[in-house]
Amino acid sequence: xxxxxxxSCHIPVxxxxxxxxxxxxxxxxxxxxxxxxxxxxxxxxxxxxxxxxFSKVSWVAILDSLPTMLALILFSLIHVPIxxxxxxxxxxxxxDMN
Length: 98
Prior knowledge:
mainly alpha
């Protein structure tokens, strides 16, 4: 969808890159381990943290969303034990949850 909007507005991808709509590449031009042409290097899992500028993170927004995130975690944990037996009853299939 993003590229469709760029195309329909006649905005080149290079202009969107210059405006900061893409994450910077994690690899350098001379890196031989990169997949050619797409700028991905499978180095360490910690490489993703090189891209993020934590000074631009809205910590207030993260703190405001913590109750919602905790509610989603709680719901995810109780979802399976409640719905599997209900599904077993509606389909008349004996389910072993062990």
